[in-house]
Specification:
496 residues, six-stranded mixed sheet, alpha/beta, globular, 18 strands
């Protein structure tokens, strides 16, 4: 039998040549876009630096407030953070209705108003302390806890339930009330807190038995998650027992009840939502051991993680934080590298703010001590969104200390900007009747009335019945907002 012929590599022309296979050339590396700080940066940022210095001086004069603000977000004044995680999307509850405190007479005669909308009580710190000493009135504010402490709290609830069952009493749960009538607005803190009203949830009550069963099931699931030291999403939690929960809103609502029962922040339960917020600009940090530089995260920046507790060693040379309502405006600033020309951090929650974005903003503001300038639509809903960042929402009032960022400056788009920047008529929208009604309601809110300039702007909006979105500035050119509008606003210190 003749020997087998050795197999040879074929050449590129299909012949039998035995040469090596051709190798493809590697493409040259892409050219990196370099954006330097603007030549007029010192002039443009002069007013912003004055604002920053005043903020830091105030913090130095009252260091306890800074330590409290940092601790409220899960750490201490040295930036060390405890075992917790961020959580869920903010549900569009009816937001903050900070009307004046209801008097005894108003309570007796039904409030003296035809409106059926529940009003948030308004108290000063001195009034709150006085009420506490006289009538025993308190507020509910949760504390940061580690996983072990939360598990112990759940186990204590389980023991109480077991004792009641063994005594043949069924069982009932004692839960702080999160109803509208139990919301209190503290003027000095400029945020909503939860009052001291409580309610019960009895398994033997036909109307309450299903909710009681859902609560105990959620307690069981959270305990299992904490034992494993992992995080799950709200959707994961819902799908563990779809037949019991039926709708995700049921399990979501009980999560807040559990947090108030245990006395921990919602993030300590290790149930989180999907990424929503984005950050780009002059800030770096370590996330679960990985170094993150938000100037090198691509055009779109970095998703704000729901696990805020895993962020540490935050560093930044930014002069200010630019809080943007819309993702479209955020992407314009990210692509134009606005944060390189005028050192800043740009953040968006893509509309209604989620808990993770609110907590992230609150934390970096407390640590970096730099001002926050907001860019929202010139309509009532832009201001409502701003109010959630500043004063919190009723749904999460028990955890407002870690979720609010006080003294955010309204940079734009303001009603007065429409004429000042000669915005074309085709870019101005007529306000609907609902817009006008919402605007008038906002004029009664404390976060508006405490700032005369905000009142003036909102009255102008309601009077002219005109509104406009941030994107309306694109009528002057797609890069007008980063090349003209924002530099001019910063140069003139045009914020309120």
């Amino acid at each position: 039998m003749p020997p087998k012929r050795a197999r040879t590599s074929s050449g590129g022309d299909g012949g039998g040549g035995g040469g090596p296979l051709p190798t493809s050339k590697k493409p040259p590396p892409p050219t990196k876009r370099i954006v330097n700080i603007a030549e007029d940066a010192d002039i443009v940022l002069a007013q912003c630096r004055k604002l920053r210095d005043a903020l830091r001086k105030k913090a130095n004069d009252n260091p306890k407030s800074v330590a409290a603000a940092v601790a409220a977000t899960g750490g201490d004044s040295d930036g060390n953070y405890d075992d917790s995680a961020a959580d869920d999307d903010w549900a569009l509850d009816d937001l903050v209705s900070k009307a004046t405190k209801t008097t005894n007479k108003a309570s007796a005669d039904g409030g003296g108003s035809s409106s059926t909308k529940a009003k948030t009580q308004q108290l000063s710190l001195s009034e709150l302390k006085s009420a506490t000493s006289i009538g025993g009135k308190t507020i509910v504010e949760v504390a940061e806890m580690n996983s072990t402490e939360v598990m112990e709290g759940i186990e204590n609830v389980a023991i109480k339930i077991a004792n009641q069952v063994l005594a043949k009493q069924g069982f009932q749960l004692d839960i702080p009330s999160r109803s509208n009538t139990n919301q209190i607005y503290i003027r000095e803190l400029d945020r909503i807190v939860l009052g001291d009203k409580r309610g019960t949830r009895s398994f033997l009550n036909v109307k309450e038995s299903r909710k009681a069963a859902i609560t105990t099931r959620v307690l069981q699931l959270i305990h299992a998650v904490l034992i494993k030291r992992i995080h799950i999403t709200k959707r994961d939690l819902f799908y563990t027992d779809v037949k019991l929960f039926v709708d995700q809103s049921e399990s979501d609502g009980v999560l807040d009840d559990v947090a108030t029962m245990i006395g921990c922040t919602r993030s300590n339960l290790h149930v989180v939502a999907s990424d929503k917020g984005l950050v780009v600009g002059r800030i770096s940090f370590y996330e679960d051991g990985d170094f993150i530089d938000c100037t090198k995260m691509g055009v779109g920046g970095k998703a704000i993680p729901p696990y805020i507790d895993k962020i540490e060693n935050i560093e930044s040379d930014a002069e200010f934080i630019l809080l943007v309502e819309k993702e479209a405006a955020y992407m314009r600033m990210a692509e134009d590298r606005f944060y390189q020309r005028y050192p800043c951090i740009v953040i968006t929650a893509k509309g209604q703010p989620d808990v993770a974005t609110r907590m992230f903003l609150s934390r970096i503001t407390a640590e970096l001590q730099i001002p926050v300038l907001a860019l929202v639509d010139s309509d009532p809903y832009g201001l409502k969104i701003l109010s959630v960042y500043m004063s919190g929402s009723k749904n999460m009032s028990y955890d407002s200390a870690s979720l609010t960022t006080p003294d955010i400056k309204w940079l734009g788009l303001r009603p007065s900007d429409l004429n000042r920047y000669d915005l074309p008529d085709q870019c101005r929208l007529k306000m609907t009747e609902n817009d006008i009604k919402t605007g008038k309601e906002l004029l009664e809110e404390s976060f508006i009335t405490q700032n005369p300039e905000w009142v003036k702007e909102l009255k102008r909006m309601v009077k002219t019945k005109e509104k406009a979105e941030i994107q309306a500035l694109s009528s002057f050119g797609f890069q007008y907002i980063t090349e003209v509008y924002l530099p001019r606003k910063l140069r003139e210190g045009d914020w309120i």
